[in-house]
Amino acid sequence: MAKMTKRIQELFTKVRTAVLITAAPDGTPNGVPVGAKKILDDETVLISDQFFGKTLQNMKSNPRVAVTFWEGHEGYQLKGPVTIETSGPRFEETARWIEDISNKAGFPLKSKGAVIMQVEEIYAVAPGPGAGKRLA
């Protein structure tokens, strides 16, 4: 596992939207914006599934994903495997979290699942000579 630094965690939390990248069994890439996301610990990210269709199918057949996020000239890509939880305490907590924040926003949503990503690799995605460099 790779450990996210405090700065990476801060930026992940701060940016409103990240891009979740999956691949179909034939290798076709798929990227979708995700906003319902949070850090569980320095090696684990949670993303709530409200709308995943093709993305969910891809994760079920190929559980390796990437999550890319940036602000200005600073950005990172996390890579690793995911598990999908649709029952149990972590899913129930996620469902309550999504219901609460979406109701406050005036756009009620229901979580269909908690996507749990174990961070195995971290890369820089900011422009410049360090672009694409593996950080962890």
Gist of the model:
By secondary structure, the chain is an alpha+beta fold.
Describe this structure as you would to a colleague:
The chain has helices spanning 6-14, 54-61, 89-104, and strands at residues 18-23, 29-34, 37-41, 44-49, 64-71, 74-85, 113-118, 121-124. The chain is 24% helix and 39% strand. It has 136 residues and is α+β, with helices and mostly antiparallel strands. Strands 1, 2, 3, 4, 5, 6, 7 and 8 form an eight-stranded antiparallel β-sheet that branches. The protein is built from three helices and eight strands, in the order αββββαββαββ. A hairpin with a 2-residue loop joins strand 5 (64-71) and strand 6 (74-85). The protein has a single domain (6-124), classed as Pnp Oxidase, Chain A (Roll). The termini are close together.
- Name given to the CATH homologous superfamily: Electron Transport, Fmn-binding Protein, Chain A
CATH A-level architecture: Roll
Q: What is the mean pLDDT? A: 96
Total count of helical runs of at least 4 residues? 3
Largest sheet: 8 strands, antiparallel
Could you name the ranges where pLDDT drops below 50 across 5 or more consecutive residues? none
Helix content: 10-25%
The 3D shape can be described as: globular
Q: What is the distance, rounded to the nearest whole angstrom, between the alpha carbons of the first and last residues?
A: 9 Å
**Could you spell the SSE succession in H and E letters?**
HEEEEHEEHEE
Number of strands: 8
> Structural class from helices and strands?
alpha+beta
